[in-house]
């Protein structure tokens, strides 16, 4: 009898409603959508078209921008759902949007790690960096997409329970499949070790080595400048990682245990679910913070964006001036025509 009461309490606490999540998610996605779309579109345009020198982690930046853009393009559907509380589209589209969210998260984690590692490696081993081939970065990027894409597949599958019977629900309102404790532990371990602990160790090591090299070596001024730029980039990657992905992964094991009905304390369960919602909103900020890495930390990107962005603005200004000139000429011609008609009537 006591066990039944405990189980009912767990279920009741696990099914706590979080009404604030709808407005919070909708507001977050609205604020992220336009800046994320414009920044990542511009970044992808500049990186692919105007930077011919594909070193200094440019290939990884292109892939990071693609990952961010894929998630940003799914945000209007998320905004629609969290405002209307209704999903009128197909089940597959719901699962695809759900999948893109986690694909973006873990692809961003690995590409940020690769950017930090490569900048640190090229800084400490400049002679080996000269022999580094572009195809190496392409191969590493392809391997990341395959690994991350495969590893994220269980996440939408895990949340697809009852989706076929209730097509109006999606995203945060999706239920959980009941899985064994062993499967849950395996998923938590893989996500935490592979998607959080290992990248944290690598980014921390790269930051430490880059700062150490800047302090210890007496180098020419131009090399010092290059080392400072490398340090800024590694530090920016660390900031994005800490702000966007650390809160989610600190809470993820507790969130999974809540869904497995491990805890019975309602206050702790409610706190865990609330923090899960907030951490997901923070994770989405990477779509706006990643372009900062390209613009402020890469001189090539900044120079090319300023040059070609200025050209585009100048072209727009010229087009506007030409349009105004054509309109003025039309008005002059109309005035002359009216004067000629008046003269003819007078005669």
From TrEMBL:
Q: GO terms for CC?
A: plasma membrane
Instruction: Please name the InterPro entries in this protein's record.
Output: GPCR_Rhodpsn (IPR000276), GPCR_Rhodpsn_7TM (IPR017452)
GO MF, one example:
G protein-coupled receptor activity
The answer to keyword Glycoprotein applying to this record is yes
Keyword Acetylation tagged: no
Q: Which residues form the G-protein coupled receptors family 1 profile domain?
A: 39-294
Its main subcellular localisation, reduced to a broad class, is membrane
Q: Which residues cross the membrane?
A: 24-47, 59-83, 103-124, 136-157, 185-208, 229-248, 268-296
Organism of provenance: Sciurus vulgaris (Eurasian red squirrel)
Keywords of this protein's UniProt record, alphabetized?
Cell membrane, Disulfide bond, G-protein coupled receptor, Glycoprotein, Membrane, Receptor, Transducer, Transmembrane, Transmembrane helix
Q: Which GO terms describe its biological process?
A: phospholipase C-activating G protein-coupled receptor signaling pathway; positive regulation of Rho protein signal transduction
Q: Which Pfam families match?
A: 7tm_1
Q: What is this protein called?
A: Putative P2Y purinoceptor 10
Q: Where in the cell is it found?
A: Cell membrane
Q: Which residues form a coiled coil?
A: none
- Briefly, what is this protein's role? Putative receptor for purines coupled to G-proteins.
Q: Provide the membrane topology annotation.
A: Multi-pass membrane protein
